[in-house]
């Protein structure tokens, strides 16, 4: 499985001339039998009809908790994406059917340990739906920056191993601006970071350790600051092998060395 990181998805765009349209929209005709079977398995006493259930389920990407108990588990299992007995996601099938970017966006969510198999299935399916909505936006925002700056494939490949210094001036700032990763005061819009890159490895991590401190900010321009903070974000998710100044400080803060 390839790692999900910002510049990997633009390589994907360069190599694919006609991109497959990937969808997990359950209201599509070919999912009707799956929906019928899963509707039959739940207690419908509180619902007027299957249509009401379907309409409610369309918004599951925005649920804070599973509003139709264990329905997502049934859907994911019937799609062949989730093994109920083993409480495990079929990652290769997700890659094959939805694409590597969809899987990589949710890779941490699909690997979290949950005692409740229904909650595990719901969290994973919810993430995949969010990926369907957000990955294409991330693609488009970065592609716009590539076009604006007339960036070649060779130039992009320089980012593959996360250089400590940005090779293309202000490329990440261009993406960050289009994705609204920062406020007007250059504070993080954390929810937008999560929309752009997907759930982080450790949900309880203190991501504030990736902010460049005030003293260092005085020595850096805004493009360098943003790129440094992005690199730290990726390293906290174990996506890179390099070491940035911010990441070193983050490790020291976490492990006290």
UniProtKB/TrEMBL annotation:
UniProt-listed PANTHER family: GEO07291P1-RELATED, ODORANT BINDING PROTEIN-RELATED
Pfam families according to UniProt: PBP_GOBP
Any single biological process term in GO: sensory perception of smell
Keyword field: Secreted, Signal
Name the record gives this protein: Uncharacterized protein
Signal peptide annotation: 1-23
Keyword hit for Signal: yes
GO CC entries: extracellular space
Family according to the record: Belongs to the PBP/GOBP family.
Presence of the UniProt keyword Signal in the record: yes
GO MF, one annotated term: odorant binding
């Amino acid at each position: 499985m390839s790692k999900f990181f910002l510049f990997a998805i633009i390589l994907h765009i360069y190599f694919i001339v006609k991109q497959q349209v990937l969808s997990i929209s359950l209201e599509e005709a070919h999912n009707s039998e799956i929906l019928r079977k899963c509707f039959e398995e739940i207690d419908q006493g509180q619902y007027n009809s299957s249509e009401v259930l379907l309409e409610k389920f369309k918004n599951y990407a925005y649920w804070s908790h599973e509003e139709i108990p264990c329905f997502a588990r049934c859907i994911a299992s019937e799609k062949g994406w989730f093994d109920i007995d083993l409480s495990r996601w079929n990652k290769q099938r997700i890659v094959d059917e939805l694409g590597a970017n969809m899987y990589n966006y949710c890779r941490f969510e699909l690997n979290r340990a949950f005692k409740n198999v229904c909650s595990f299935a719901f969290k994973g399916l919810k993430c995949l739906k969010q990926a369907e909505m957000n990955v294409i936006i991330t693609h488009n925002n970065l592609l716009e920056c590539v076009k604006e700056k007339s960036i070649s494939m060779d130039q992009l490949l320089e980012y593959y191993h996360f250089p400590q210094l940005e090779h293309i001036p202000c490329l990440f700032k261009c993406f960050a601006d289009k994705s609204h990763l920062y406020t007007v005061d250059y504070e993080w819009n954390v929810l937008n970071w999560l929309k752009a890159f997907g759930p982080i490895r450790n949900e309880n991590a203190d991501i504030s350790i990736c902010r460049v401190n005030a003293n260092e900010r005085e020595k850096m321009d805004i493009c360098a600051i943003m790129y440094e903070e992005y690199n730290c974000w990726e390293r906290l998710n174990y996506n890179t092998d390099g070491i940035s100044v911010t990441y070193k400080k983050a490790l020291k803060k976490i492990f006290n060395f």
